[in-house]
Specification:
This protein is mainly β and 910 residues long. Helices cover 8% and strands 49% of the residues. The chain is built from five helices and 71 strands. The strands form 18 sheets. Strands 61, 62, 63, 65, 66 and 68 form a six-stranded mixed sheet that branches. A five-stranded mixed sheet has the order 1-3-8-5-6, covered by helices on one side. The protein starts with a helix and ends with a strand.
């Protein structure tokens, strides 16, 4: 503002000198008067600049300058005029601007504004040359906009110019009488599908002679508001369709002035929910329940329960009637929820109907009905059994039939078993009816070689004719038996040819083989794999698959040229882990070497050696106490008891079976018996039952899921060496950070025979918060008003003295911008002294701060507010201090004053 004022004052000074030189003779007296005029103008400039520092206006023009202005000012009337800065015929000085004069014929409110891509501003003077006001960035693209009262018969002068001194600049000026005020606030009405709904656009008319035009528009989602053809009257009528709501607005226009009248039509509807089929015990008390919602909560809800008494004629009789008054309906906006129930003292089978209506002036405006049936029986059924095939793939299930008191009921049974195979082919396994007198009628046993999902159903019929069905689902996997041919630990030298083989059988499909050395080996797809041994020792395995499940067979090939050599000092013992194979170097005369082992889980471990040499081992705890030792495994049955005969260990190798504690360190002293030549042997430790799950594989059914505020739990599949494990038996599942958008995790922890864990991440993408959804954050309430945009709607914590309306809040896991403050939303914030509005606020409702009597400081971080986004009277009643961003200080001062801010209120930079 300083720069613009200096420009005007410089212009006034040059204008004063020009006027003096044109009207006075060139005498000494004239020179003196000219000097005085200059000094007077300079003094006026200093005074005006000082006034500008305080946000005040310049005082005006002297008589000489004003006389010149009156002669060149163009007459300004309603309509528009294009202003060209380089039009020298219309200006005193083409560097700055142009003068206009306006004499209204009638008292009233007039608006003068500019449009264009040039930064414009305007000064207003009365007929005495006194400056009344100045206007700057109240319109889009830094154009000015001035709306004020003018008196008929008086002449007003406008000085219009641009901020830049460029010699070419154009913009258009408009002048129009403000004949209409703001339209009424948004109207919400309810209607019924099929009826004709009429809505009316209302606006404050300030001039009885004003000619108004109307145009109705309907909101079409991504297309915004679209004009309705032929809807150009004040009243708009249409037939209501079966949809949730209509969003309509009407543009009301008088000359160049226009406002919008907004309307929302809620389509009345009742929806009911309940259990369509209700199973209960015969002659036992039972309750039928129905719940629903209506968008007409102001009307009483009539609920009538009926029972079918004649199915042929579809005849019902009323058994209960209830009315829920409007004030008992819990309202959500204009949406009312209700519930009702029917108590049946002695339940018996039958059909019921629940009818819900709402009446307005004895006229039914909406209704709905819901049918449900009661199936009363004295039978309780439950199928029990195992889904795992037993010996020879035999599966058995048993059905128990009891009365409500738990006594067994004699029944006949009909069993039916079908299987949906992996290829989605449905096969009937058994379809049989057997009498209760028949042995085992309440159980079924069948043999299967077909893997897939089994559907086991049984229908029981009592002697009284009551029937009840029970269903069980089970999954039967196929089976593969795969085992190594020969030793699984092979000792060879570098360059030797090694052949590994497996033999396998399956009860389903065809067998496929794939050999691995960390990664799949190209071309190695047979039951045997031959290769030349490289440096080091390697782990190989063969994956055997039948198209349904797979099984892995492991081999260890140890290069005898690369033995592990350890020192004889215990403190330098090499750490080893379970389920790994180590080649340990030994010497004659039983020179000892040391290894140390720290188990991850409590278990009974096998510690044994393989090779042609006679080996000895001693097991010590971390304090050096001897726990166990062994020379020849043939002297103990531990290996056969624990491990069976899957390995062919020579009798002169050692073996210890010992229970070890997790987290403790144990030491092993290993050597060959005295008298043997220098050599080596293979050394292994493995758990009896537990396996390390961290070496398995975890797969998720989904790796990317859209957020909707609920927990996301993608399906989990865990395999270990080709075997699919069972949730709850072999592992447990936990989800982390699985509600809000971002990276979530699934952690699978071993259970039973498995220990260790697996973890895999998945992504929760940001969704869209549903329209009308609400949330509470920081003691305040918010409501979704647009695509991931919310409005501040109220304050719940009425005792707080400081309140910050944040930039964003989360609704249903979706981050939403806080863009508006509803009208009167802060009425309850009577104790708040400091209020901060976030950077995304661009709309403020009417009298938003009127009742905040203790509010001393209002901080506004937003730079997005405009005359259109602020309601009329938004700042009415505010008496504190406002702090805004420095870049918006000048614009917001003017804008807030127009929206009800008193001139005594200070607006400062934040």
């Amino acid at each position: 503002m300083k720069v613009k004022t200096k420009q005007l004052l410089a212009f006034l000074m040059s204008l004063t000198l020009l006027a003096s030189s044109l009207t006075l003779p060139a005498t000494a007296d004239t020179t003196d008067k000219s000097d005085k005029a200059v000094k007077k103008t300079e003094a006026k400039a200093e005074k005006a600049e000082a006034a500008d520092e305080e946000g005040l206006s310049a005082e005006g023009m002297d008589e000489t300058l004003f006389a010149q202005v009156k002669t060149i000012a163009k007459e300004l009337t309603s309509g528009n005029v294009t202003v060209s800065i380089n039009d020298t015929t219309a200006y005193i000085d083409n560097r700055y601007g142009v003068w206009y004069k306006f004499t209204p014929a009638k008292d009233g409110t007039y608006r003068i504004w500019s449009l264009g891509n040039t930064d414009t501003y305007l000064y207003l003077f009365n007929e005495n040359g006194e400056q009344i006001d100045r206007y700057d960035d109240a319109n889009d693209d830094s154009n000015f906009c001035a709306e004020r009262e003018y008196e008929a018969g008086h002449t007003y002068y406008f000085y219009s110019t641009v901020y830049s001194r460029e010699t070419t600049a154009e913009y258009s000026m408009f002048l129009s009488k403000v004949n209409i005020g703001e339209a009424e606030e948004e109207q919400i009405i309810c209607a019924v599908p099929g009826e004709v709904c009429t809505i009316s656009a209302n606006v404050v008319v300030m001039d009885s002679e004003a000619t108004l035009t109307y145009q109705w528009e309907e909101y079409k989602g991504e297309y915004g508001y679209v004009a309705i053809e032929g809807a150009d009257q004040k009243d708009y009528s249409f037939t209501v369709a079966e949809k949730n709501e209509y969003r309509l607005r009407c543009q009301i226009k008088s000359e160049e002035i226009s406002v919008y009248s907004y309307h929302k039509v809620k389509v009345s509807n009742i929806s009911l929910n309940g259990m369509a089929e209700n199973n209960c015990r015969y002659h036992s008390p039972y309750t039928l329940a129905v719940s629903g919602k209506t968008i007409r909560p102001e009307l009483p809800i009539n609920i009538i329960w009926k029972k079918l008494i004649d199915a042929e004629d579809d005849l019902y009789e009323t058994v209960s009637q209830n009315t829920i008054s409007a004030n008992t309906v819990s309202a959500n906006d204009v949406l009312g929820w209700f519930t009702d129930s029917l108590f049946i003292p002695q339940a018996e089978s039958g059909s019921y109907q629940c009818v819900v209506t709402q009446e307005d002036n004895d006229t039914i405006v909406t209704d709905a009905s819901f049918l449900m049936s009661v199936i009363a029986t004295s039978l309780d059924l439950e199928i029990s059994g195992s889904s795992d095939p037993g010996i020879n793939n035999t599966v058995q299930y048993t059905l128990t039939a009891e009365d409500p008191d738990g006594n067994e009921v004699e029944c006949t049974y009909r069993w039916k078993v079908t299987c949906t195979s992996k290829s989605d082919k449905v096969t009937t396994i058994i379809d049989d009816v057997r009498e209760r007198s028949g042995e085992g009628a309440n159980s079924i046993t069948f043999k299967t070689s077909l893997p897939g999902e089994y559907h086991i159903e049984c229908v029981a019929r009592s002697a009284e004719g009551e029937t009840k069905s029970c269903t069980k689902y089970a999954c039967v996997d196929s089976n593969i038996d795969a085992e190594p041919v020969g030793n699984t630990v092979v000792f060879q030298k570098t360059g030797s040819k090694v052949t590994l083989s497996v033999k396998a059988t399956t009860d389903y499909g065809k067998l496929y083989y794939q050999w691995y050395e960390e990664e799949p080996i190209t071309g190695a797809t047979g039951s045997s794999y031959s290769f030349t041994l490289r440096d080091g020792w390697e782990k190989y395995y063969c994956d055997v698959n039948n198209g349904d499940i797979s099984q892995s067979v492991d081999f260890y090939v140890i290069n005898t040229d690369k033995l592990i050599k350890n020192t004889s000092k215990k403190e330098n013992a090499k750490a080893v882990i379970a389920d790994q194979v180590y080649a340990v170097y030994g010497q004659e005369n039983c020179v000892r070497e040391y290894l140390k082992f720290t188990p991850e889980v409590d278990d009974e471990y096998l510690i044994y050696s393989r090779g042609e040499h006679d080996t000895v081992v001693s097991l010590y705890d971390e304090k050096g106490n001897l726990l166990a030792d062994n020379d020849d495994y043939g002297e103990t049955d531990d290996y056969k008891r624990i491990h069976g005969n899957s390995y062919d260990i020579l009798g002169n190798n050692f073996l210890i079976a010992y229970s070890l504690k997790a987290g403790k360190t144990y030491y092993l002293e290993v050597c060959m018996n005295a008298g043997d030549d220098e050599g080596y042997f293979g050394f292994l430790i493995e758990g009896n039952n537990k396996k390390n799950l961290s070496t398995g594989e975890l797969k998720l059914s989904q790796t990317s899921i859209a957020s909707d505020g609920s927990s996301k739990t993608p399906g989990v599949t865990v395999t270990y060496k080709g075997k699919t494990l069972k949730n709850g038996t072999d592992y447990t599942v936990a989800y982390q950070n699985n509600v809000n958008p971002g990276t979530a995790s699934v952690v699978v922890a071993g259970k039973g025979k498995y220990y260790g864990s697996l973890k895999q991440n998945f992504t929760i993408t940001a969704g869209t918060a549903p329209m009308g959804a609400k949330t509470t954050s920081g003691g305040a309430t918010y409501k979704v008003t647009g695509k991931n945009e919310v409005a501040f709607t109220g304050l719940k914590n009425k005792k707080q003295t400081r309140l910050t309306i944040p930039d964003t809040v989360k609704i249903g896991g979706v981050t939403c911008k806080v863009t508006s403050v509803d009208a009167k939303a802060l009425n309850s914030a009577t104790k708040v002294k400091t209020l901060t509005l976030g950077k995304n606020i661009n709309k403020i409702g009417r009298k938003a701060f009127a009742k905040m009597k203790k509010l001393k400081t209002l901080k506004i971080k937003s730079t997005n507010m405009t005359a259109k986004s602020l309601s009329k009277g938004a700042f009415k009643g505010f008496k504190g201090t406002i702090k805004v961003k420095k870049s918006k200080l000048k614009a917001y001062k003017t804008l807030f004053r127009k929206k009800g801010l008193a001139k005594t209120v200070k607006v400062k930079k934040l």
